[in-house]
Amino acid sequence: MKTRQQLNQENYQQAVKFADNFSEDLKAEYLAEAQERYQFERQQISEHLQNVKQKRPLVLSLLLLVILSVSGVTYWQTGRYQIVQTGNQMHQAFQVQTQLEDKEQKNYRYITNLQDRLRATPNDGDLWYELGQAYTLSNEFESALVCYDNALKVLGEKAAILGAMAAAEYYANQNKISARAQQWIDIALRLDQKESSSLLLLASDAYAKKNYQQAIDLWRKVLDSDNESINRRAIIQSMQAAREMINQ
User: pLDDT band at 67, cuts 50/70/90?
Assistant: First the structure.
């Protein structure tokens, strides 16, 4: 298992490499924050080692084991931090490296970064899709729909994009499935019967309308899919809540 110092060094090196994805003004700020975190962690490691240096060998070994275990668990957890419905590696890396920032500020920076990249490559459909997801997280649903529409124009009809469009339309329309949202859902599920966004949207709508068994059946379809980015724990909890409503 790697030491805390090695993990700190690797995280800093990854941050330096990742900074190349930013515009120059954001890059400087990002690198400054990464350097500050790196130096702070080095100081913490140094002070800790000085404090335990005089303790008995057995106690020292146990303390180091705890430190290494906690560091390993922390690294494992942050490496799996994800945003809702993306599973995008670039977004995950961005969130890991800037986890100390406020969530809203973090997403704003991510939106700015995507906008800069799209100015350079305006025909990148994947970037348009990512930007749509980022806008959705900020509850800017109309902007999200524009981005998803651009993604469709570049990439063609994709189930995931249509499902995301339906979700944005649903929330923009005060949690109601409009005619065009239903049309997008129908096309998405025709292209992919296990498209998660569409199924989750239909399940939430069914639950809101007190159609609890229908909601449970739809959530079950999502769990049976191969989508690793879904929050299985949250879905299982929702299914349990629906069962409790049925049994009342």
Answer: very low
Q: Which amino acid does the sequence have at 21?
A: N
3-class SS at 83?
A: coil
- Quick one: which of 105, 113, 93, 109 has its CA closest to 11? 93
Quote the CA–CA distance of 160 and 196 in Å, as a whole number.
8
Computed on alpha carbons and rounded to an integer, the radius of gyration of the chain in Å comes to: 22
Q: Given the structure tokens 């945003």, which residue do they identify?
A: 83
The tokens describing 158, both together, are: 């994709």
- Measured between its terminal Cα atoms, the distance across the chain in Å is 51
Q: What's the confidence (pLDDT) of residue 35?
A: 75
Q: Name the strand (E) or helix (H) holding 161.
A: helix 159-172
Tell me which range, 55-64, 80-89, 141-150, is most confidently predicted by mean pLDDT.
141-150
Cα within 13 Å of Cα(28), Cβ side:
2
pLDDT recorded at residue 43: 67
Structure tokens at 77: 């957890």
Closest CA to 163 of 107, 124, 120, 203: 203
Is 163 a residue whose pLDDT tops 70? yes
Answer yes or no: are the C-beta atoms of 15 and 30 closer than 8 Å: yes
